[in-house]
Specification:
By secondary structure, the chain is of the alpha/beta class. The protein folds into 3 domains: 79 residues, Orthogonal Bundle (Arc Repressor Mutant, subunit A); 99 residues, Periplasmic binding protein-like II (D-Maltodextrin-Binding Protein, domain 2, 3-Layer(aba) Sandwich); 92 residues, D-Maltodextrin-Binding Protein, domain 2 (3-Layer(aba) Sandwich). 46% of the residues lie in helices and 23% in strands. The strands form 3 sheets. Strands 3, 4, 5, 6, 9, 10 and 11 form a 7-stranded mixed sheet that branches. A two-stranded antiparallel ribbon has the order 1-2. α7 links the parallel β7 and β8. α1 packs across α2, α1 packs across α3 and α5 crosses α10. It is globular. The protein starts with a helix and ends in an 11-residue tail after the last helix.
């Protein structure tokens, strides 16, 4: 099947109409209709019901939609592999949550270029949910994320554990109150543990989903929040932050996940490099600076 047919199908689903899909793809509406007609002929089923409101999926279209994204992504990955850089034997596609990039992924990238120059690298940043989906689909070889859930067809391997600790600023013109606490989104497991430890605390005035932004805000505005130990250590050392006495700490594990269908020889080298990078993160001086929280 022409992969452009699958792309066109997905664009119609996304936009809800043949007209909008044509505009986004820089095609005529006639060309879009022709591609969908080819798809329906191949499937021997109608995939859209068209009316004045636009286009909606038929039951057959809903079934095809389950696989269309994977078709496009696997094709893109195969195209990248076929176009691997001269001198490279293969390409590995890897994704990670944003907060994993400094220092873990930085260490890994440097190690890979030094120790495995024969492997080309395609690296991406996605949400945890999207990372798991892409590993399952086969469009990513490896993903690095926190608290990876168990999924069929996916191997999950522990890398290292960090601790989330409650800190507060030490200097300011006023005492800190509950309204000065910043809620940081560390995932569902942390949220459940936090609410169990602090059942009487309501939602904070400020909630931030990205650790580095939350830490910058607390340092500038004053306040408190839960952050990774290695990240706040420099600020504890220089006195800008202090640990909140007798506050609970929570584990925060980094994991690597990869598909059971991935090339074992390539995965072995990637895994080794990630464990080397994890060891560097744990070493004094190997921890991240203030750019990642």
């Amino acid at each position: 099947m022409d992969i452009n047919v699958a792309r066109t199908f997905l664009e119609v689903v996304k936009t809800g109409s043949f007209v909008n899909a044509a505009a986004n793809l820089n095609l005529t509406q006639t060309a879009v209709s022709a591609r969908i007609r080819v798809l329906e002929q191949n499937l021997d089923r109608k995939v859209f019901i068209r009316n004045k409101a636009g286009a909606r999926l038929t039951p057959a279209g809903e079934q095809f939609f389950r696989f269309a994204t994977s078709l496009v992504q696997v094709w893109d990955r195969a195209r990248r592999a076929a176009a691997v850089a001269s001198g490279s034997e293969t390409v590995v596609t890897i994704g990670a949550e944003l907060s994993q990039w400094n220092p873990l992924m930085r260490h890994w990238l440097l190690w890979m270029r030094r120790e495995c120059p024969e492997i080309a690298i395609s690296a991406h940043i996605y949400s945890a949910e999207r990372l798991m989906e892409q590993v399952q689909e086969g469009s990513l070889d490896v993903a690095i994320l926190y608290a990876a859930p168990a999924r069929p067809g996916v191997v999950t391997e522990f890398l290292f554990e960090e601790r989330l600790v409650l800190v507060r600023t030490t200097k300011g013109d006023r005492p800190l109150g509950p309204e000065d606490h910043v809620n940081v989104d560390w995932g569902e497991d942390f949220a459940a543990s936090y609410h169990a430890a602090f059942p009487d605390l309501g939602p904070g005035v400020v909630s931030i989903s990205y650790g580095p932004l939350a830490l910058d805000y607390v340092l500038e505005q004053g306040g408190s929040g839960y952050f990774r130990t290695a990240v706040v250590q420099p600020f504890l050392d220089d006195g800008r932050l202090e640990l909140v006495p007798e506050s609970p700490e929570f584990p925060y594990s980094s994991c690597l996940v990869y598909s059971t269908r991935a090339d074992e020889s390539v995965i072995a080298r990637v895994r080794h490099g990630l464990h080397v990078a994890a060891d560097l993160v744990r070493l004094p001086g190997g921890a991240p600076g203030s750019s990642t929280a």
